[in-house]
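Entry 12.
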Amino acid sequence: MSTAPVTRHDNVDYATEQSYRLPAETKTSTKTTEFFAFVAMVIAVVVTANIYDGNGTDVDPFDATTAMRYVVYLTIGYMIARGLAKSGSRETRNA
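Predicted 3D structure (tokens):
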């Protein structure tokens, strides 16, 4: 079993090889399931906002403002999901 060389200075051992953080194996955002679910839901919201007219009434209950609000909610949820996925993805390794 080999160990890293150690340098002594003022009675303290220091490893001469530096440990630093390397990214672990994580998928890019466009290769994840939550990305495709996000895109599908945004498309569903936009299509629904364009098609649904409130059953012939004069008031459109699902107008562009409501659709954009839902798209913003979806975006926030997607960003939180990606943040949680990436939060533990770095680990300390020797180079």
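Annotation: DSSP finds two helices and four strands in the chain. The mean pLDDT is 75.
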